[in-house]
Amino acid sequence: MRIGLDVMGGDRGPEEVIAGALEACALLEADDRVVLVGDQAVIEDKLSQAGGENRKIEIHHAPDVIGMAESPVDALRTKPKSSIALLASLHKSGELNACISAGNTGACVAAAQMRLGRLAGVHRPGIAIVAPTTAGPVAICDVGANVNCRPLHLYQYGVMTSLYIKAVTDIETPRVALLSVGEEEGKGNELVRKTAELMKADSFLNFIGNVEGRDLVSGACDVMVCEGFVGNVVLKLVEGIGEGLMRGLMKKFAAAMPDQMERIMQIAAGMREQYDFNMYGGAPLLGVAGIWIICHGASSSVGIANAIREAKAFSAHKVNQHIIEQLSESRD
Amino acid sequence: MRIGLDVMGGDRGPEEVIAGALEACALLEADDRVVLVGDQAVIEDKLSQAGGENRKIEIHHAPDVIGMAESPVDALRTKPKSSIALLASLHKSGELNACISAGNTGACVAAAQMRLGRLAGVHRPGIAIVAPTTAGPVAICDVGANVNCRPLHLYQYGVMTSLYIKAVTDIETPRVALLSVGEEEGKGNELVRKTAELMKADSFLNFIGNVEGRDLVSGACDVMVCEGFVGNVVLKLVEGIGEGLMRGLMKKFAAAMPDQMERIMQIAAGMREQYDFNMYGGAPLLGVAGIWIICHGASSSVGIANAIREAKAFSAHKVNQHIIEQLSESRD
Questions:
Q1: What are the per-10-residue average pLDDT scores of chain B (332 residues)?
Q2: Would A2 be classed as within a structural domain?
Q3: What's the per-residue H, E or C state across chain A?
Q4: A71 with A19, same domain?
Q5: How many domains does chain B have?
Q6: For the domain that residue A184 is a member of, what is the CATH number?
Q7: Is some CB atom of chain A closer than 8 A to the CB atom of B248?
Q8: Is A234 an 8 Å CB contact of chain B?
């Protein structure tokens, strides 16, 4: 398959993204290709610095780039030759089978929605991220694609994320929960109450009811459904708290046990690695008529390489076909 | 002043709440009273176990109790003699000047709203909690009173929480931020965008713009405003992640450095204490025509004692009067 990679996105610069592509190549099949989309001169320069050519790597020149702070829809309109806009066009025309970007998330969502369109039956695409927690991985959807959710959107996030998790993990029947402000039925806002009704009515879903914020790390569910505003706040908060707590704790250790800091730092590093978002590569934009993996802006080469593997797995397990079939069945 | 304390609320049982009342007594003024509201026999029994009478303690019998999982409005209607319903009535009639409960939060909010009413100019009360973070304390409002927020409600949360923080801390001009999904203006949902306009238009507010989830621990703001659904998710999540991370880390330490576990556990305990919600006592329900402090269900006696001191401070600093005056000025 041909996987397009946005070289201009990502806070760590093109060399990190390209390094990720090269790392992934070893694991790709002979006829797979990673198409680096971005400034050709920059890519050629970084590629030669990184050790030269690789026959699984191709380059597609994109003269423009959408900044992290730009308004997505405006930027796509004024920059049709930006790496993100070109990724979408190349996917649409069949020259690519999947897109990966660590750039402007809003622009990725808008480009995918506008150019690729939605899968049959899907009302709104949603970003599903797999969060590594102390109680195991939990998929959260949506983490920011859709801040105007209706019950049907959330219900479909439950179906799509279930199918995704079934496909890419060994969890047979993912436990789906709705993120709310109390576990008791009837609590929460109207969106949650109406979504719960839809979820309960679909026997395909292993819907276990409402959970609270703390259940992200309690092991209570495999899939946590929420609207994009809440999901994005949760995502950023989890990162921030983890970092803050580790920093605070290390300061205390350094003051009280300076003689043990080498071993302590080693253990902390192991902890950080275990809960590193890069282990999960990227977050698929579920529901678009194609494969689009959104990476964290701060993705390392490991994160990019894992996103490339994830695109492969998403395709191999026919996640999109399962979504179309399941949503069609649920409607009948 | 006369402070009513719900003895029947709280996961740790009446003895813990009563222990908190007794701890607080030493710090109260001679004519202050803590009125224990709950089952008289239980209170008398626990009081005598705890060392007998205290002339600053009174008892008001409440034959009924509202459970944690009960529907607030239904429970208040069917249980007018429950401790929470009686607290509200006694406050309304002037027999109490403040109420404290670690019981059913929804019932507290409903009882306060229905019996005490709102301060002049206030549209919706909101719960403001002070979260201890590695970057210092941050007040979050609302954390669960109002899951159907309009821009005006959020704007008023900003004003009320600013005044509260000014009164009870040494922060002169609290930096107020709106919790959103991106720092850039224009990002977020409609509620956030419209609230930002209102906040910018009021020169009283030191409005610094939008922040993201991670900014809860970045030190970027002193007051974080959000609607109750999001705030409650955030609150529960913070608790859960902190606990989960510490547990995971301690497991690693125990495996790798068993010889150092005594010192490590000591430092971890210090960390837990520093970020213990009990240090902040409780969360005021801002905007009601009275003083109502909502405590965490798992509050220890220290948490209860701090909530009693907080009620005193809230009264001494005339927070409600400031709210009425400021909202009246903002309207002019």
A1: 96 95 93 97 93 88 94 94 98 98 95 97 96 86 94 98 94 96 78 96 96 90 96 90 86 92 91 76 94 94 94 96 94 68
A2: yes
A3: CEEEEECCCCCCCHHHHHHHHHHHHCCCCCCCEEEEEECHHHHHHHHHHCCCCCCCEEEEECCECCCCCCCHHHHHHHCCCEHHHHHHHHHHCCCCCEEEECCCHHHHHHHHHHHHCECCCCCCCEEEEEEEECCEEEEEECCCCCCCCCHHHHHHHHHHHHHHHHHHCCCCCCEEEEECCCCCCCCCCHHHHHHHHHHHHCCCCEEEEEECHHHHCCCCCCEEECCHHHHHHHHHHHHHHHHHHHHHHHHHHHHHCHHHHHHHHHHHHHHHHHCCHHHHCEEEEECECCCEEEECCCCCHHHHHHHHHHHHHHHHCCHHHHHHHHHHHHHC
A4: yes
A5: 2
A6: 3.40.718.10
A7: yes
A8: yes
> Are A172 and A268 within one domain?
yes
| Domain hosting residue B194, numbered range | 127-281
Q: Which residues does residue A57 pair with via DSSP β-bridges, in sequence order?
A: A34
Buried b or exposed e, range B118-139, using 16+ CB within 10 angstroms: ebebbbbbbbbbbbbbbbeebb
* Nearest residue in chain A measured CA to CA from B264: A253
Which of A180, A233, A264 is the best substitution to test chain B (most B C-beta atoms within 10 A)?
A233
Mutate to test the interface with A, among B241, B243, B250 (most CBs of A within 10 A): B241
For an interface test with A, the pick among B153, B193, B249 (most A C-beta atoms closer than 10 Å) comes out as: B249
* Cβ distance of A148 and B237 shorter than 8 Å: no
User: Does B136 contact chain A (CB < 8 Å)?
Assistant: no
Cβ contact, residue pair B213, A228, below 8 Å: no
The shortest C-alpha distance from A71 to chain B (Å) reads: 8
B91 and B34 part of one domain? yes
Binding-face residues of A in 266-325 toward B, CB within 8 A: 266-268, 270-271
Q: What is the mean pLDDT of residues A295-307?
A: 93
Interface check for B215 against chain A (CB to CB < 8 A): the answer is: yes
Structural Rg of chain B based on CA atoms: 20
User: CA nearest B230 in A: which residue?
Assistant: A230
pLDDT grade for A332, boundaries at 50, 70 and 90: low
Number of CB pairs < 8 Å for A and B? 170
- Any A CB within 8 A of B65 CB: no
Asked whether the whole model's pTM tops 0.90, one would answer yes
- Do residue A132 and residue A117 come from a single domain? no
Q: What is the ipTM of this complex?
A: 0.90
Which residues in chain A are closer than 8 Å to B132, comparing Cβ atoms? Answer: none
Q: Please judge whether A181 and B233 are an interchain contact, meaning their C-beta atoms are less than 8 angstroms apart.
A: yes
Residues B117 and B237 in one domain: no
